[in-house]
């Protein structure tokens, strides 16, 4: 196959391929092996599904209904481009007895429209607005997998992880925020085997790109004040977006900018020394040299002294997470958390900020007890050994895989010399 994101290569017999995939799916669910001709993107998705505790006989759960669903849809960033998506994809879905679906970045379906008879069939498997179709909830499926991998993808019949979805074929493409590149959700077309054609994947990809172009046109004018955007979560070297340019900061400069962004009122030289260096013997001249180099990177008049402070406002991804947590928007906070703050930093003040942010988010996740949010954290690199989160996940989603991982962690904790 020339393109592994396509479900069928030209000339393939869909009936025979579906039969082969059903046998492969049974082999995987029984023995954990992935035989040919399962595509790598599907095999990897099946493995993620198992790690998330999804069973092949599961079903989607409906999380939002009625007024809650309406309010969430109205505020979602994709709402303004739904007329365009309907114009481009709606007639194709209705005429072809397919469904048009749009999900958010967590795989939650926001809109499901199309042929009435097809909608009634889809209702029986909870393919309805407000239902969560993320990989961590229902396994491999086009909208959930598209937002998981950030790529357009087709899923053909028994490539779906849950058996009751296997009569269907779907193609989906993620929609990105044209300003930040963040995944906002996905556009999906769902129906019969005919959607395994390459045209359906190209079609949803084109619709997603059109939606992104429309979002760029609808974006508000940038504020008059110069605002720098700092990306420091999950990165040892932060990115600073300023006046249309993106600068990769060195590790030390990343630490300085993170701290000054957190203290817009400024920090004295002594305060910065204590914040950055474990060794109290580091001379002030070392810090002054770093600040001089940073001033040259940022440009004139953007870093001043007495106290040291940034003269332009800085919006950091860490601040976004903190602000959403304070507002009680746990799902939004989790979606903005790309990993620990400057994970390689050993600067004492950065370590405190990193720990406080992570502890605040994980405590909120445990308190809200959302199984998908807990699963996302537990299966992330920073959460795979988080015993408290695994215990919380086991309480709300007690699958065999979750219980097994929890038992392994508790065994490690009880082993002599574990701490």
TrEMBL record:
<keyword id="KW-0238">DNA-binding</keyword>
<protein>
    <submittedName>
        <fullName>GAF domain-containing protein</fullName>
    </submittedName>
</protein>
<dbReference type="InterPro" id="IPR003018">
    <property type="entry name" value="GAF"/>
</dbReference>
<dbReference type="InterPro" id="IPR029016">
    <property type="entry name" value="GAF-like_dom_sf"/>
</dbReference>
<dbReference type="Pfam" id="PF01590">
    <property type="entry name" value="GAF"/>
</dbReference>
<feature type="domain" description="OmpR/PhoB-type">
    <location>
        <begin position="244"/>
        <end position="310"/>
    </location>
</feature>
<dbReference type="InterPro" id="IPR001867">
    <property type="entry name" value="OmpR/PhoB-type_DNA-bd"/>
</dbReference>
């Amino acid at each position: 196959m020339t393109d592994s994101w396509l479900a069928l290569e030209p000339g393939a017999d869909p009936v025979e391929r579906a039969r082969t995939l059903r046998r492969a799916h049974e082999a995987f669910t029984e023995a954990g092996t992935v035989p040919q001709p399962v595509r790598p993107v599907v095999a990897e998705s099946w493995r993620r599904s198992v790690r998330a505790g999804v069973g092949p006989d599961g079903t989607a759960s409906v999380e939002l209904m009625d007024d809650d669903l309406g309010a969430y849809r109205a505020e979602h960033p994709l709402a303004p481009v739904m007329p365009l998506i309907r114009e481009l994809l709606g007639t194709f879905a209705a005429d072809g007895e397919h469904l048009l679906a749009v999900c958010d970045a967590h795989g939650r379906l926001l809109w499901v429209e199309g042929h009435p008879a097809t909608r009634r069939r889809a209702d029986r498997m909870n393919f309805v607005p407000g239902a969560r179709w993320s990989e961590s909830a229902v396994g491999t499926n086009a909208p959930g997998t598209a937002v998981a991998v950030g790529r357009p993808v087709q899923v053909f019949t028994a490539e779906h992880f849950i058996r009751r979805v296997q009569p269907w074929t779907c193609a989906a493409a993620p929609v990105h925020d044209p300003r930040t590149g963040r995944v906002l959700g996905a556009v999906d077309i769902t129906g019969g085997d005919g959607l395994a054609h390459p045209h359906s994947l190209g079609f949803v990809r084109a619709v997603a790109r059109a939606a992104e172009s429309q979002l760029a046109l609808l974006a508000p004018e940038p504020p008059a004040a110069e605002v720098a955007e700092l990306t420091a979560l999950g990165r040892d070297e932060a990115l600073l977006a300023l006046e249309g340019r993106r600068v990769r900061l060195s590790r030390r400069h990343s630490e300085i900018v993170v701290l000054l962004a957190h203290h817009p009122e400024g920090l004295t030289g002594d305060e910065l020394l204590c914040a950055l260096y474990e060794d109290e013997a580091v001379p002030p001249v070392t810090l002054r040299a770093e600040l001089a180099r940073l001033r040259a990177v940022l440009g004139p008049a953007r870093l001043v002294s007495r106290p040291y402070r940034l003269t332009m406002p800085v919006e950091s991804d860490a601040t976004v997470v903190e602000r959403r947590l304070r507002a009680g928007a746990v799902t939004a906070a989790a979606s903005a958390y790309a990993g620990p703050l400057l994970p390689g930093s050993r600067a004492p003040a950065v370590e405190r900020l990193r720990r406080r942010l992570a502890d605040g988010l994980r405590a909120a996740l445990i308190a809200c007890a959302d199984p998908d949010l807990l699963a996302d954290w537990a299966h992330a690199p920073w959460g795979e050994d988080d015993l408290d989160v695994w215990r919380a996940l086991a309480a709300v989603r007690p699958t065999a895989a979750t219980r097994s991982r929890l038992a392994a962690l508790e065994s490690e904790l009880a082993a002599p010399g574990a701490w």
